[in-house]
Amino acid sequence: MKLSQFRFDLPLNLIAQHPAKKREDARMMVIHRATGQIENKHFRDVLDYFDDKDVFVVNNTKVFPARMYGRKEKTGAKIEVFLLRELNHQNKLWDVIVDPARKIRVGNKLYFGEAEDLVAEVIDNTTSRGRTIRFLFDGSNEEFKQVLNTLGETPLPKYIKRKPDEEDKERYQTVYAKHEGAVAAPTAGLHFSIELIKRLEIKGIRFAEITLHTGLGTFRPIEVEDLSKHKMDAEYYRIEDKACGIVNKARLEGKRICSVGTTTMRALESSFTSDKLLKPSEGWTNTFIHPPYNFSIADSLITNFHLPKTSLLIMACAFAGYDLAMEAYKKAIKDKYRFFSYGDAMLII
């Protein structure tokens, strides 16, 4: 398939700027693959589509405050520094994206905080906007992380046209977030409240946790028309024995396995056996899922409504079927569903 087939016109007023009042109050479109039926529901109704011993697989990655603002030495020019990942714990080396990039060269020093609490030195160019920086900090690692938490802000995507506030610290994070390392929330999981999870568990539904640290590669624009030529950035994932036990028991008993989010689905599709069972593994995945594609583990998917021409939309089309998914997106625009990170949900079954 071609990239241009995943284009659609999205009215900007449908891009959610704030989360729903309560997590499970978001709307939810339900797509039935077997019949082509499309229903309008609310996320709390997800209870009605799953039964005893079905499994939800969730991504327990935790977002860290990755966006920082610093000043360049001598000129004092304001520079946005977006932390992507820690490369070396000992030397405090980080992969970052800087903006405006043209002003930042190897050897430049950057100062963060009113009292210049933190200094970093640029030591390498990685891409046109990418740099490797080394933080110059003498304290313990705990103290260093504390400084980053104080100086950094919640990395809301650029299409949310406002400054992050206190509420975002909680709401741009799943209630089951555990392992810090993501620069973007696994947004399908944002709809689950602790109360809704309890109600699902009372019904007999089990939760299996995996980890995939969402990087900016998930959102990097696809620049090739031929999808088979697109290369995803690798993201770190970990699937442990416990999750495999829960998922494989359900699979062998013919129960439903629901992937909560496209990040979860990428991890599941990176680690399965020849007889389609989930296997424990840890590493980096650059799996890019596009139609036609045979999924190995999950038979249902919860996801949000995504940007045109993105890997996230393309995966949803691979799972639902291209024609049905694009029909659902037309209906979502007509029915004024809210799009993207703080938007509404889609359940594909």
Q: Any overview of this molecule?
A:
The chain has 349 residues and is α/β, with parallel strands linked by helices. Helices cover 19% and strands 27% of the residues. The chain is built from seven helices and 17 strands. The protein is globular. The model has no long low-confidence stretch (mean pLDDT 94).
Would you kindly provide a brief summary of this structure?
This protein is of the alpha/beta class and 349 residues long. The protein has helices at 141-151, 166-171, 194-202, 241-252, 262-268, 311-320, 322-334, and strands at 27-31, 38-42, 55-59, 61-63, 67-72, 78-88, 93-99, 109-112, 118-125, 130-136, 179-182, 206-212, 235-239, 257-260, 281-285, 300-304, 345-348.
Please state how the strands of the largest beta sheet are arranged side by side: 2-1-17-16-14-3-12-13-15
Could you report the average pLDDT, rounded to the nearest whole number? 94
- Helix/strand-derived category reads alpha/beta
**Tell me, what's the shape?**
globular
Order of helices and strands: EEEEEEEEEEHHEHEEHEHEEHHE
Strand content: 25-35%
Label this structure with key terms:
alpha/beta, 9-stranded mixed beta sheet, 349 residues, 17 strands, 6-stranded antiparallel barrel, globular
